[in-house]
Design brief:
heterodimer, A: 326 residues, alpha/beta, Rossmann fold, Alpha-Beta Plaits, 6-stranded mixed beta sheet, elongated, disordered N terminus, disordered C terminus, B: globular
């Protein structure tokens, strides 16, 4: 995984906002993504992730603020951006009668050859398309309308990557993919970044993001509430600890351990959630007692995310529901 | 041919072929009717006995002399049937050009390539022109073929002039549908408004014979530009064609401006 936070800026937004009448879909988003970086864009459905991506592509016009992609203005210079960007829409439609191959040819012909330095970027490259399809195990000869959800999604990934884009804007790219293909796609994303590409990966599934992202932006109700390095988020990641103690113990002994959550004691069994940074202090307190059993496991970013950024009730509940069907 | 135009035409190839066959079939039917109508004066009498208002409404004011091929074709085909068929095609094509792709959500796919919105509109318009030309060609060939076979010929040149005027009529309303679709993104609006205006413009042209004040607004009616100078007898009438072409140009420019300044729904 590369850490490209000091590199060239490929996405920059300043006060980016989008409203529909009185409804604000996006409010004052300031975002920077650098070359060679995978930026995870996390939030529940309806938080504004898709709106952000569509603004970056110039499909929507900002109500306020500005977005620049690869140094170009998203609204005024959209076609020039599109030549260098691959987009995976969140809820895509295809020309159902065309086969995968015909679709890649058609959209490839619209891409033409735009690059000035004589490289193949932007040109239709049949061998490259075939290689991408083979990696994702996709049959290009079937009409798009007859494909299963997973195979449609593969075709959309091929369409987004066939012109060797510098930047990938991915809106829930692995939805519908089976786990093996997800792994393959994540590997493709890593290769893309290793070759100097960048990725904006929008998702409501933390697990997907934590496997590839360098930094994570967290969006809720149209506002970017936090941008964290993944390590920072990991350091905060909660550990579920369960200790069975033989002798008498009281909760007050743990009052000085910082950032403990859900501390409980029942029949000599102590349970709590603690961030990595508190584990040392916690274990030292436990060591004063006779320990019969001890279990500690990482809760994953999901719970961490909810603890730090989630609105405790409604957002948490809807979040859990979405994570299940993912 | 540019890609978007080519794809749009390819998508229509079956339907265009069906249109062409139907047009030939329609003309063949008229060809079969023609000897009976020509030799039977009672049809002509019937038209003469119609109240003037009905006559101008259904035959759009032309002197319906059913004993000549021109008069017969005018009354049977050109006054109502042919414009209706062409308008069904052009308004449908214009409405689906941008708004149709948008409602099927494939416009995203198009507009996330380096193709500009201006180019999408222009290529869609070009596809509509090609499709209309195919229909026009089918009309022209049918007029010529059936004309020879049924002894109903109006001459290849006059047939061509008629078809050019017919095509321009279609393109005016098709461009309106394209513009409304590009501005609103809604197929329903893009279909309904041109249909309503076509009916209105038909009525204006038809009733202008009788209603004095309508005569002054009549030249605005695309139906007047189409048939007012009787192209099947007199050939092309350039001023009318120029007005129609200008109307199309303005509407396409509005379509471009409309699509360029708005959000595309996903």
């Amino acid at each position: 995984m590369t850490t490209g936070t000091t590199g060239e800026v490929v996405i920059q937004t300043a006060g980016l906002s989008k409203s529909y009448g009185r409804t604000s879909a996006l409010v004052d988003v300031d975002l920077e993504v650098h070359r060679g970086e995978v930026f995870g864009y996390l939030g529940p459905n309806g938080a504004g992730k898709t709106t952000t991506l569509r603004l970056l592509l110039g499909l929507l016009r900002p109500t306020r603020g500005q977005a620049r992609v690869l140094g170009l203005d998203s609204w005024r210079q959209a076609p020039a951006i599109h030549a260098r960007v691959g987009y995976v829409p969140g809820d895509p439609a295809l020309y159902d009668k065309l086969t995968g191959r015909a679709l890649t040819r058609y959209l490839g012909s619209l891409r033409g050859c735009y690059d000035g330095d004589g490289s193949l970027r932007g040109c239709y490259d049949g061998a490259h398309v075939a290689a991408l399809a083979q990696r994702l195990d996709l049959d290009l000869d079937r009409p798009a309308g007859t494909l299963s959800k997973g195979n449609r999604q593969k075709l959309i990934l091929v369409l987004a990557m066939m012109h060797r884009p510098e930047l990938l804007l991915l809106d829930e790219p692995t939805s519908g993919l089976d786990p093996l293909v997800q792994v393959e796609f994540l590997a493709m994303m890593r290769e893309h970044v290793a070759e100097g590409g960048s990725v904006l990966l929008s998702s409501h599934v933390l697990d997907e993001v934590q496997r590839v992202a360098d930094r994570v932006g967290i969006i809720r109700a149209g506002r970017l509430v936090a941008i964290e390095r993944l390590e920072t988020l990991r350091a905060r990641s909660l550990h579920r600890l369960r200790a069975h103690l033989a002798d008498g113990v009281s909760l007050s002994e743990f009052a000085e351990v910082p950032d403990l959550h859900d501390l409980r004691l029942r029949d000599g069994v102590l349970t709590c959630s603690a961030p990595q940074s508190s584990l040392d202090a916690l274990v030292k307190r436990l060591a004063a007692h006779e320990v019969l059993d001890l279990a500690c496991e990482e809760a994953g970013l999901e719970e961490t995310f909810l603890t730090y950024y989630g609105a405790p009730t409604e957002a948490g509940a809807s979040y859990a529901g979405q994570a299940e069907d993912a | 041919m540019p890609s978007v135009t080519l794809k749009t035409i390819r998508d229509q190839r079956r339907s265009l072929a069906l249109w062409a066959v139907s047009i030939l079939g329609l003309l063949a039917t008229y060809g079969a009717m023609w000897p009976t109508v020509r030799d039977n004066t009672s049809y002509a009498d019937l038209i003469k006995q119609m109240p003037e208002s009905m006559r101008s409404l259904f035959i759009a004011g032309a002197a319906g002399d059913l004993s000549t091929p021109q008069g017969f074709l005018y009354v049977e085909l050109l006054s109502f049937m042919a414009p209706m068929l062409v308008l069904v095609y052009t308004i449908g094509a214009g409405a689906s050009a941008v708004a149709g792709e948008e409602e099927r959500r494939t416009l995203d796919l198009l507009l996330s390539t380096p193709v500009t919105r201006t180019r999408v509109v222009l290529e869609k318009f070009a596809a509509m022109v090609v499709g209309t030309a195919v229909l026009g060609l089918a009309f022209w060939a049918s007029l010529v073929i059936v004309g020879v076979a049924a002894n109903m010929s109006v001459g290849a040149g006059m047939a061509a002039a008629t078809v050019v005027h017919l095509g321009m009529l279609g393109l005016v309303f098709g461009s309106l549908a394209l513009a409304l679709g590009a501005i609103t993104g809604r197929v329903g609006v893009a279909r309904a408004v041109p249909v309503a205006l076509a009916v209105l413009s038909y009525l204006v042209n038809a009733l202008a014979e009788m209603v004095g004040w309508l005569a002054r607004v009549r030249p605005v009616s695309p139906f007047y530009q189409y048939a007012g100078h009787d192209p099947i007898r007199h050939g092309l009438y350039w001023p009318s064609l120029a007005v129609a072409a200008l109307t199309c140009a303005v509407l396409v420019a509005l379509a471009v401006a409309g699509l360029r300044r708005r959000d595309v729904s996903g």
